[in-house]
Amino acid sequence: MMDPRHAAALASLLGDDTRILTQPQVVERLSRDFYWYSPVLRKQLDGKVGDLVVQPVSVDEVQSVLRYCHTHSLAVTVRGAGTGNYGQAVPLQGGVVLDLARMDRIEDIQADGVAVCQPGVRLGSLETEARKSGWELRCYPSTIVKATVGGFLGGGSGGIGSVAHGGLRDFNTVRALEVVTMEAEPRILRHEGEAVHDILHAWGTNGIITRIWLALAPAVEWSQCVVAFSGFDAAFDFSERIATDAAWIKRLVTTFEWPIPSFFTPVRQYAPQDKALIFS
To answer: Do 255 and 232 form a contact (C-beta atoms < 8 A)?
Structure first.
């Protein structure tokens, strides 16, 4: 169990004890993601929990917290919204859960279609704001409403839009990242171009993402379509033609083999019995 003096010291650093969370139920909730989807991870991670949660609102506060944790050898686990399935937000050695949810400012949607934002911005909020100036996200996960930009970059991969724009590692979608290191004197570093790949999909283990430059795509007013086929092969062949033909403007092309569509209540009403489906 962590010495309670650490909570008081961190509260003093932030000048705000309301952003140092120590209530056991709250700390437990913010020490979890959806790892329990996996029976393997559930066995490994059940019962793992941080000692307290810190919610910084600025880069300076992130540096102060990391400096303190380094000095006192406290483990730090970075958290976005906890929508991942891989245990990336679960503290393995207790310590501090660094919850970046309050760093949620969209700083700019640049004229060239690059969003500048903090890591706690929800992807859905960024999509809504970008559309006001004629842009949209190139790709996003199914958890767009809750997931944060920083969490997606730290642990995500592809999602809706990948069929047209690739994953996060492709086509210079992530233009630059500002990160803070955990050292005796935490540094602020900027990774640009190919250097962003040092940080992407690293779960915050080699730098805490504090600012993001993310390329967008011109906004489209999308229509959704479901097509049924008698067999999976025919559905897949048709969806592959859509996916690879530049004449089709698309954001999503997904092929479902029966009985997968029958497992989801909102989808079931559109799913003829024994038919493979394409969602596009």
So the answer is: yes
Name which CATH class applies to 4-99: alpha beta
Identify residue 242 by its one-letter amino acid code: I
pTM value is 0.93
Per-residue tens of pLDDT for the chain, all 280 residues: 789 899 999 999 999 999 999 999 999 999 999 999 999 999 999 999 999 999 999 999 999 999 999 999 999 999 999 999 999 999 999 999 999 999 999 999 999 999 999 999 999 999 999 999 999 999 999 999 999 999 999 987 788 999 999 999 999 999 999 999 999 999 999 999 999 999 999 988 999 999 999 999 999 999 999 999 999 999 999 999 999 999 999 999 999 999 998 998 888 888 899 999 999 9
Which segments of the chain belong to CATH 3.30.43.10? 4-99
Answer whether 89's CB lies under 8 Å from 80's CB.
yes
Q: For residue 29, what are its two tokens?
A: 């909730």
Distance CA 6, CA 15 (A): 14
Q: Is the dihedral of CA 10, 13, 17, 20 positive or negative?
A: negative
| Token couple for 105 | 């400012």
Domain 106-218 sits in CATH 3.40.190.10: no
Tokens standing for 18? 């309301």
